[in-house]
């Protein structure tokens, strides 16, 4: 196995040497071959019985992650926080919330993970802080306070906000502070005031904080809503503001720019053109961004995610094709189906009843066959599913606000609940399903949010030892990504672009190629392929058939350009 890895590395390298200087550096970046695993700490593993996952819990599960074979963990925020938005409201960037443990636990996690060659990617929230952050407490005291300008303030009369900009979580984006006779701007909850990036002192404080984390030995950063930092609220510009790339280049130069770290910016407003700037191979901004175009295809046009609509499958293919082409050699893609804000992939894009295992593997094949860095969201590797809660079982601020708002607007309650079952962020936040014991081995106490009742059937213990499980399939896929140079470097070519059932594509690297075939339906679909058993790199059925693809069948086949 090791020899094989070396060989493919050597091959990649000789190719690199023939290539232009800049690209040489680029091709050898570790994060291009890496598979990242996202942990939502409060739902991963509790170690002290308080019902909330914590850092000691993660340390306990590092063997599981090493066994899966991932290269890095993206850790959703564990900093001190009032938890209004589950940690995305930070009150102290340089402290760990006691709920999750101590700074010593954090350092242990970095060290222990490092021993298993797993890097820790911190989640940086630089667009806003908590309203309980010391800066905001000061800022609120008086308009002459030196921290006042760390946030975005505007004059206005009571009940007359500067404009009608809305918060992502509902209601106005402006909050009135009577003592100051001013409004502050918040794109998320009112407990998440936006930072003012116009202020160079604020920017420098953020850079110092980031460098402090870099010194602790982290492997990189995921940057929360980073395309929203350069807002111009008077012009109603929230993302991609005119100064965005000036700020990002400064951020890069003052912190991670010359370090061997992975950086991934969350950018809901990213287009392919913008993403070439964000992920420019010259390293001036980030390694890559999360863009969400494939995530918005199952909602009514011009409406929001709650307004459900059947997904346009052909469009999905073309969206992936567009991004694969656009960033080839000019940037880098991140590959993901889900995260802590999104529904479970198998429920959303697959079939979580009759073909749960097949479709979970199919989705994994489809994504991991493309060019980019794949992200696995905790539990995805088990084929965990969405949950059908009643309203009192939901915990997420976005969900609860939306429910209230839509009820007030006169929406039918059952209709709202249908939207929540499909799209609530809590679908992704039910506790990790470790085994079939009480609370799935997540906690010995009362879990902060209910478990998905299917944990006796879907859990890690069942799957780790089963060679046919979703888990074992992910493990093999990850291995393949580490070894296969066509997966790393090959260009992308969509096959059967108009098929309404099959998602298939080629990856081509010099004379080598691979073909990826995925059936997106629960029917047999005709698809004639000339396959030899020895060329199959991975497949989700035990045998193969040259004439048709069975329900949710998927395979990756290697070959040569003839
Ligand atoms: O998410 C950004 C964001 O815009 C989401 O809130 C998204 O709009 C929503 O989930 C889709 O309906 C990031 C974090 O990932 C999220 O968890 C935070 O709540 C948010 O930023 C604020 O920090
Ligand atoms: Ca705990």
Multimeric state of these chains?
Answer: single chain
Distance between the termini: 28 Å
Strand order of the largest sheet: 11-10-9-5-2-1-13-12
Structural class: alpha/beta
CATH topology of the largest domain: TIM Barrel
- Radius of gyration equals 24 Å
Estimated helix fraction = 25-40%
Count of distinct structural domains: 4
Strand content: 15-25%
Q: CATH homologous superfamily of the largest domain - what is it?
A: Glycosidases
Q: Architecture of the largest domain, CATH level 2?
A: Alpha-Beta Barrel
Q: Number of helix segments? A: 17
Q: Bound compounds, please?
A: 1-O-alpha-D-glucopyranosyl-D-fructose, calcium ion
| Parts with pLDDT < 50 across at least 5 consecutive residues | 1-26
- Number of beta-strand segments: 20
What is the CATH level 1 assignment of the largest domain?
Alpha Beta
Mean pLDDT: 95
């Amino acid at each position: 196995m090791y020899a094989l890895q070396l060989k493919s590395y050597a091959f990649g390298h000789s190719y690199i040497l023939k290539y232009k200087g800049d690209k040489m550096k680029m091709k050898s970046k570790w994060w291009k071959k890496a598979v990242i695993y996202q942990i939502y700490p409060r739902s991963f593993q509790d170690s002290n019985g308080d019902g909330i996952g914590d850092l000691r819990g993660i340390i306990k599960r590092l063997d599981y992650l090493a066994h899966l074979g991932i290269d890095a963990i993206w850790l959703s925020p564990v900093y001190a926080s009032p938890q209004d938005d589950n940690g995305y409201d930070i009150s102290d960037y340089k402290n760990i919330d006691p709920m999750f443990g101590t700074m010593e636990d954090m350092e242990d996690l970095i060290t222990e993970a490092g021993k298993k060659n797993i890097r820790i990617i911190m989640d940086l929230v630089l667009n806003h802080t908590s309203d309980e952050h010391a800066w905001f407490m000061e800022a609120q005291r008086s308009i002459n306070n030196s921290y006042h300008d760390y946030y975005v303030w505007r004059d206005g009369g009571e009940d007359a906000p500067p404009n009608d900009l809305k918060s992502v979580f509902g209601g106005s984006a402006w909050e009135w502070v009577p003592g100051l006779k001013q409004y502050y701007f918040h794109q998320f909850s009112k407990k998440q005031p936006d930072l003012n990036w116009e202020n160079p002192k604020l920017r420098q404080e953020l850079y110092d904080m980031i460098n402090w984390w870099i010194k602790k030995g982290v492997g990189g950063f995921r940057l929360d809503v980073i395309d929203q930092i350069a807002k111009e609220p008077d012009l109603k510009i929230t993302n991609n503001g005119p100064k965005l790339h000036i700020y990002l280049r400064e951020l890069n130069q003052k912190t991670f720019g010359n370090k061997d770290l992975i950086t991934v910016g969350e950018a809901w407003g990213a287009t392919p053109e913008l993403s070439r700037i964000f992920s420019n191979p010259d390293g001036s901004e980030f390694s890559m961004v999360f863009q969400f175009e494939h995530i918005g295809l199952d909602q009514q046009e011009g409406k929001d995610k709650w307004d459900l609509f059947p997904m346009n499958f052909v469009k999905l293919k073309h969206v992936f094709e567009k991004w694969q082409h656009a960033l080839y050699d000019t940037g880098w893609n991140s590959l993901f189906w889900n995260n802590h804000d999104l529904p479970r992939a198998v429920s959303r894009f697959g079939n979580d009843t009759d073909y749960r295992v097949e479709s979970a593997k199919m989705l994994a094949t489809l994504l991991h066959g493309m060019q980019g860095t794949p992200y696995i969201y905790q539990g995805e590797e088990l084929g965990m599913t969405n949950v059908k809660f009643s309203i009192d079982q939901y915990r997420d601020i976005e969900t609860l606000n939306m429910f209230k708002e839509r009820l007030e607007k006169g929406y039918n309650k059952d209709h709202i609940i249908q939207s929540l079952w499909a799209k609530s962020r809590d679908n992704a936040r039910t506790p990790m399903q470790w085994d079939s014991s009480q609370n799935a081995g997540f906690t010995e106490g009362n879990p902060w949010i209910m478990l998905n009742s299917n944990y006796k059937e879907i859990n890690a213990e069942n799957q780790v030892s089963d060679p046919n499980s979703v888990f074992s399939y992910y493990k093999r896929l990850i291995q393949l990504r580490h070894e296969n140079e066509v997966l790393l470097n090959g260009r992308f070519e969509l096959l059967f672009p108009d098929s309404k059932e099959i998602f298939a594509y080629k990856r081509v690297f010099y004379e080598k190629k691979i073909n990826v075939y995925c059936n997106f339906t629960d029917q047999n679909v005709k698809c004639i392929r000339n396959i030899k058993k020895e060329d199959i790199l991975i497949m989700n059925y035990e045998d193969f058939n040259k004439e048709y693809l069975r329900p949710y069948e998927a395979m990756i086949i290697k070959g040569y350009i003839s």
